[in-house]
Amino acid sequence: MILVTGGTGLIGRHLVARLLAEGRPVRLLLSEPRARHLPWDNPPEVIVGNILDEEALFRAVTGVHVIIHLENAQWWGRPRDLERVELQGTRSLITAARAARVGRLITLSHLGASSASAYPVMRYKGMVEDTIRASGLAYTVIRSGLVFGEEDAFVNHIAMQLQVTPFVYLMPGRGEVVMHPIHVEDLVSALVGCLDNLDTVDNVIEIGGPEYISLEDLIRTVMRVSGSFRFIVGVPPYLLRWMSAVYRRIMPRTLITAQWLDILATNRTARLGNLYQYFGIRPRRFEDTLLTYMRGRHYGREVLRYSLRRRPKVL
């Protein structure tokens, strides 16, 4: 039995669909609202609760041999939410997993994660990694580059921002930060590959797609594919953080969050070829993949739907 936390997020939805298609037994730990709206035709077993609910957590890990831990608050949470959901949640999960004699814990982190980082998202991801390595459980940590896909919360937000700024695009800094984007399906293939690859046990693996790209080039690629050309203006990141804080007081959600800017704070790359070396996966190119779903997409309506949607409740 495989337990997946965060199974209804972008990566979780693709991962659970892949595991079900391969006939693997899957169990999800979900809150009651999420459990009522499952995106699969033949849904897996569901335990209602969250990773801070000790009783639900113990029921979820009983009989499980592998946990794939994806629960996070990185796109919407404030620092206190990151600490509660990511760090405290992981500690609770480890305690329950050790009591139930779970064989292995697989988790997803970020390239650049470090407990010494000055940026909350990277710092808490690094602290989660340290906690897992010291847990006594067999583990695999996948440090991933920027994940993109049809429903991602990063590249699509750039396309949305282009719709709400008719003449210019405000770019954090000078756009020199280098990223290593990876398609969500390639990342899911790596997570599934960890289940059968013994070389990944007790290992931290860094992966990305087939190319490096600077932030400015990424923005220009999104402009080219979406057909929304704007004059790019470099803005100090601290000013964008201030603007985001003001906008957050007006609308339930903002397209640019502090976590979004944390991810753009430093270069985040892995060695080219790691995905193929570990898992035999030939990753998809960034622009070629965007062309399959971004061209002709109506992002103006998506901006309104996203901005008026309520933020997730803290566990």
Please tell me about this protein's structure.
With about 325 residues, this protein is α/β, with parallel strands linked by helices. The chain folds into 2 domains: about 1-145 and about 185-205, Rossmann fold (3-Layer(aba) Sandwich); about 155-180 and about 210-265 and about 285-310, UDP-galactose 4-epimerase, domain 1. Helices cover about 40% and strands about 15% of the residues. It has helices spanning about 10-20, 30-35, 55-60, 80-100, 120-135, 155-165, 185-195, 215-225, 235-250, 260-265, 275-280, 285-290, 300-310; strands at about 1-5, 25-30, 45-50, 65-70, 105-110, 140-145, 145-150, 170, 180, 180-185, 205, 215, 230-235. The chain has a 7-stranded parallel beta sheet, sandwiched between helices. A two-stranded parallel ribbon has the order 7-10. A two-stranded parallel ribbon has the order 8-13. β1, α1 and β2 (about 25-30) form a beta-alpha-beta unit. The chain is globular, with a radius of gyration of 19 Å. The model has no long low-confidence stretch (mean pLDDT about 90).
